[in-house]
TrEMBL record:
<dbReference type="InterPro" id="IPR035649">
    <property type="entry name" value="EFG_V"/>
</dbReference>
<dbReference type="GO" id="GO:0003924">
    <property type="term" value="F:GTPase activity"/>
</dbReference>
<dbReference type="InterPro" id="IPR027417">
    <property type="entry name" value="P-loop_NTPase"/>
</dbReference>
<dbReference type="InterPro" id="IPR041095">
    <property type="entry name" value="EFG_II"/>
</dbReference>
<dbReference type="InterPro" id="IPR005225">
    <property type="entry name" value="Small_GTP-bd"/>
</dbReference>
<keyword id="KW-0342">GTP-binding</keyword>
<comment type="function">
    <text>Catalyzes the GTP-dependent ribosomal translocation step during translation elongation. During this step, the ribosome changes from the pre-translocational (PRE) to the post-translocational (POST) state as the newly formed A-site-bound peptidyl-tRNA and P-site-bound deacylated tRNA move to the P and E sites, respectively. Catalyzes the coordinated movement of the two tRNA molecules, the mRNA and conformational changes in the ribosome.</text>
</comment>
<keyword id="KW-0251">Elongation factor</keyword>
<dbReference type="InterPro" id="IPR000795">
    <property type="entry name" value="T_Tr_GTP-bd_dom"/>
</dbReference>
<dbReference type="Pfam" id="PF14492">
    <property type="entry name" value="EFG_III"/>
</dbReference>
<dbReference type="InterPro" id="IPR031157">
    <property type="entry name" value="G_TR_CS"/>
</dbReference>
<dbReference type="Pfam" id="PF00009">
    <property type="entry name" value="GTP_EFTU"/>
</dbReference>
<dbReference type="InterPro" id="IPR014721">
    <property type="entry name" value="Ribsml_uS5_D2-typ_fold_subgr"/>
</dbReference>
<protein>
    <submittedName>
        <fullName>Elongation factor G</fullName>
    </submittedName>
</protein>
<keyword id="KW-0547">Nucleotide-binding</keyword>
<dbReference type="GO" id="GO:0032790">
    <property type="term" value="P:ribosome disassembly"/>
</dbReference>
<dbReference type="InterPro" id="IPR035647">
    <property type="entry name" value="EFG_III/V"/>
</dbReference>
Length: 680
């Protein structure tokens, strides 16, 4: 019988203890000799220098371990909002996830966002309430907060125990046992606990939670319901069966508790992962597997994190392919691949995120797509009124529909970058293209002046990209100060405009008009039904030119969005090259749309903040001084909570300011609320 495989991710708000929990899981499984501390820069999963320096996860780390005869691929995802695309990519390759909730702060903004992502992706979720080593943090209050905020009933399956104000043991509900630390720090069964007369209170507590679990599970298992109604005992194996059905529902969530830092509650949690997660799905025939992540190692080059769809020995691998285990930044060769397992793959061709590789070694995607020189996806749909330039997603490996991840992340900052040495231009351009392919939330815009604009979600992402550009690719560049990226929208219908372009014997001309889309649509659409039978290079040239022109915008502050172009006439001579077509179309757009035809829209952020109540006045006053509109205020006497809508231009670089005002005690997160007409 083949060893079962489970792929799991771990998600949390920043500083909830996610990476510390990852380290403890690997330690409990025997993969590492001691858990590294994030604070010391020694976390096994955070291998990048930028991760060690900042104490945050940036790239989804991958580790492997065995537990209860189950093979796990374990993905530790970033908690910082700038790297949300990493979380999205990880969720396409997993059967289940652990969502960490800090008992110190409860359900925070990113916790809620992660839970929603998990629900939308239909990824089985288990909660872990962390940081209970502090007896001042209440497990009961955290469970109430989970139910009120997430809208699900947590079914508690482990309970911490304290002695003299210090966590000393865990009670496991399903096995009705007590776990303590061995001399090595691992959790082990307390063999003498059942006969200990002083443990009557703990056994009563376990029975209480066991009975609660039976009550909840009876909603999903008729046999359990029958026994419960007759007041007969429900054996653990039967309860486990009912809890598996409960775990698949939307009304309940299996919940464990403990302390990642102190190593309590880990064994019960990992055992739950072997119990409650679904099996690896069945994949399509003739598929080798799917690319779920791209990485680059200096000296090695590009590798793909790859989820296999088939069992295959080395002798049957397609020519030019190599597969390895990825452990931190090391590649360990393997002799076979198994369906559902995750490997590092070196392929004979450049791969794309989400790309499915066939058994014959050829790549295919569920949607045909091409990329421009900057690494941006350009859709190959016919120009018959469909959206042009909006990448459509591939089917997720877990069988769920996966819309384009890049569509979920609008870059809010733009930064000008140029080479230090002119001779490095080609190398820098190639390196930026690779980074853009590796991170779907990062875009590059090439300028004819010999420089680039880097479009990023936030400042941390920009800093990390520049550091990686130097460390991994050896590129020396000069970067300007990041600026807020606005949006431009048409105020009215414009055109038609005419343009003719000729080089030697080749001549082409175009007549084009444009109109604004209704509502807040931000895509670019193109109507040109008469061109459906045109050669593909003509179609691609027109489409690419329009996308590049709108990306630059008219005023230079950001992209032109929400536009429908209509090509009334396009004529060309045979043998016209794509650059010529792009030039003709781009000049036509420049003639068509003038500065007076567009209005600027600025990004507005929703800021969620908490700080000690004694800093409430200073923090609130600072937000109002930044043109922020406070819309929610709460507090519990100790901590001040607020939500506010603030223009991004006024809160750019906010981290330094709020740290100074609150003396480093404030925690905050931001997300894009939308765009509004600019008043400046």
């Amino acid at each position: 019988m083949k060893q079962p495989i489970r792929n799991i991710a771990i998600l949390a708000h920043v500083d909830a203890g996610k990476t510390t929990l990852s380290e403890r899981i690997l330690f409990a499984a025997g993969e590492i000799h001691r858990p590294g501390r994030v604070e010391d820069g020694l976390a096994t999963m955070d291998y990048m220098p930028e991760e060690k320096e900042r104490g945050i996860t940036i790239e989804s780390g991958v580790a492997h371990f065995e537990w209860k005869n189950t093979w796990f691929n374990f993905i530790d995802t970033p908690g910082h909002v700038d790297f949300g695309a990493e979380v999205d990519m990880a969720l396409t390759a997993v059967e289940g996830a652990v969502l960490v909730v800090s008992a110190a702060s409860g359900v925070e903004t990113q916790t809620l966002a992660s839970f929603r992502k998990l629900r939308e992706s239909r990824v089985r979720t288990i909660l872990f309430v962390n940081k209970l080593d502090n007896p001042d943090y209440s497990l009961d209050e955290t469970l109430i907060n989970i139910e009120e905020t997430l809208g699900v009933r947590p079914v508690l399956m482990s309970v911490p125990q304290f002695k003299n104000g210090k966590m000393c043991a865990m009670l496991d509900v399903l096995s009705q046992s007590r776990l303590v630390h061995s001399e090595s720090g691992a959790e082990v069964l307390d063999d003498g606990w059942e006969s200990d007369a002083s443990a009557a209170e703990e056994r009563a507590l376990l029975k209480k939670y066991y009975d609660e679990a039976v009550e909840f599970a009876s909603n999903f298992d008729d046999e359990i319901l029958s026994l419960a109604l007759e007041n007969k005992p429900v054996p653990p194996k039967m309860l486990l069966r009912g809890l598996k059905a409960l775990a698949a529902s939307d009304e309940y969530v299996i919940c464990y508790a403990g302390s990642a830092l102190e190593g309590f509650g880990i064994r019960s949690l990992v055992t739950a992962l072997s119990f409650f997660l679904p099996e690896v799905p069945t994949f399509g025939e003739n598929e080798l597997g799917q690319v779920v992540r791209l990485r680059h190692f200096r000296g090695v080059g590009e590798i793909s994190l790859f989820r296999s769809h088939v069992d295959l020995l080395r002798r049957d691998w397609p020519a030019g392919f190599e597969f390895s285990r990825l452990k931190a930044n090391m590649l360990l060769p393997v002799d076979e691949i198994r369906s559902g397992d995750i490997y590092a793959m070196v392929s004979p061709f450049e791969t794309e995120l989400g790309q499915v590789i066939r058994l014959d070694g050829c790549g295919m995607c569920s949607e045909s797509a091409e990329r421009d020189a900057a690494g941006n996806v350009v859709e190959n749909a016919a120009l018959n009124g469909n959206t042009a330039g909006t990448a459509t997603g591939n089917a997720a490996p877990n069988g769920n529909a996966a819309p384009s991840i890049s569509e979920n992340y609008l870059p809010l900052l733009q930064t000008r970058v140029e080479c230090v040495r002119t001779e490095d231009y080609a190398h820098v351009e190639r390196s930026l293209s690779v980074l853009a392919r590796m991170d779907p939330s990062f875009r590059v815009q090439k300028d004819d002046g010999g420089f680039w604009y880097l479009h990023t979600v936030g400042e941390v992402q920009l800093d990390v990209l520049l550091a990686r550009l130097k460390r991994e690719f050896g590129c020396e560049v000069r970067a300007g100060s990041p600026e807020v990226r606005w949006q431009e929208r048409l105020c009215r219908e414009v055109g038609p405009a005419e343009n003719t372009f000729q080089i030697g014997p080749h001549k082409m001309s175009i007549s084009i008009s444009a109109s604004p889309l209704e509502g807040d649509a931000h895509d670019i659409r193109l109507s040109a039904e008469f061109m459906e039978k045109a050669p593909i290079e003509i179609l691609a040239g027109v489409r690419s030119a329009l996308l590049e022109s709108t990306e630059v915008g008219v005023l230079g502050k950001g992209p032109l969005v929400g536009v429908r172009f209509e090509v009334h006439r396009f004529e060309w001579t045979e043998g016209a090259l794509p650059p010529m077509i792009k030039k003709c179309c781009a000049d036509a757009v420049a003639k068509l749309v003038k500065p007076a035809d567009v209005q600027l829209y600025e990004p507005v952020m929703e800021l969620s903040l908490e700080c000690p109540v004694n800093f409430a006045g200073l923090v609130t006053g600072d937000i109002q001084a930044r043109e922020g509109k406070v819309k929610e205020i709460e507090g519990d006497g100790k901590t001040h909570f607020l939500k506010a809508d603030v223009p991004l231009r006024k809160i750019f670089g906010y981290a330094t300011g709020v740290r100074s005002i609150s003396k480093g005690t404030a925690l905050y997160s931001m997300k894009l609320l939308g765009y509004r007409p600019a008043t400046v």
